[in-house]
Recover the amino acids of this structure.
């Protein structure tokens, strides 16, 4: 079994790739029980969040099956071609993702600027509650995505601008689908969680520039990952 310590920035993808390699190479055979989360954390020298996200991605494409109280197992009849074909496909076009980025930099960033000036303790509590829901649901990309949208909507509400809040609220279907697709295909990773924690802290410190820079960095990194998957 080939295992190497993870050092690259994109930790979840690295764990995912190494686990997939062990399956394709036959180190982990169909039906085999894979190492426990604690063992994988030690093998890769990464956090439990990263390991769980990688397992979640493998489970989503049918390579890994998790049995309650027993652990995770390699699915039956796995081969190289199947693994390559099981890579999750993004159900959003590049233009749709870029359109959402432009929307966020125009509407959401203005909400952030106003929220920093106008948010009260009740607003900050709602934002924090959404953040805590994200942390609690980091192993379920759908629930995580719902809480992710609630986090950004709470910031819009804190702007105290009813029109901006209404615009954000009315984009729920599109915005949530965008977040859900990113989290489904790229996986819920530690960088995403940490980014939202830093955004909340920056809001507390009334630093709108830092909040916007953090979101912009996340959007740019996600776009790079998606283009890599598209072979660009």
């Amino acid at each position: 079994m080939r295992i190497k310590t993870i050092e690259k920035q994109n930790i979840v993808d690295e764990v995912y790739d190494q686990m997939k390699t062990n399956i394709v190479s036959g180190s982990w055979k169909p039906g085999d029980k894979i190492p426990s989360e604690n063992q994988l954390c030690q093998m890769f020298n990464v956090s439990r969040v990263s390991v769980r996200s990688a397992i979640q991605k493998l489970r989503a494409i049918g390579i890994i099956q998790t049995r309650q109280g027993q652990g995770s197992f390699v699915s039956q009849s796995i081969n190289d071609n199947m693994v390559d074909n099981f890579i999750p496909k993004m159900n959003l076009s590049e233009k749709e993702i870029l359109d959402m980025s432009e929307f966020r930099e125009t509407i959401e960033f203005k909400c952030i600027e106003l929220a920093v000036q106008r948010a009260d303790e009740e607003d900050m509590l709602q934002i924090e509650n959404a953040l805590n829901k994200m942390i609690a649901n980091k192993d379920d990309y759908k629930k995580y995505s719902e809480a992710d949208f609630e986090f950004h909507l709470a910031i819009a509400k804190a702007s105290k601008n009813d029109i901006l809040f209404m615009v954000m609220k009315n984009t729920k279907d599109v915005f949530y689908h965008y977040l859900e697709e990113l989290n489904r295909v790229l996986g819920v990773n530690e960088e995403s969680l940490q980014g939202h924690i830093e955004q909340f802290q920056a809001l507390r410190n009334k630093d709108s520039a830092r909040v916007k820079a953090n979101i912009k960095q996340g959007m740019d990194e996600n776009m790079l990952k998606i283009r890599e998957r598209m072979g660009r």
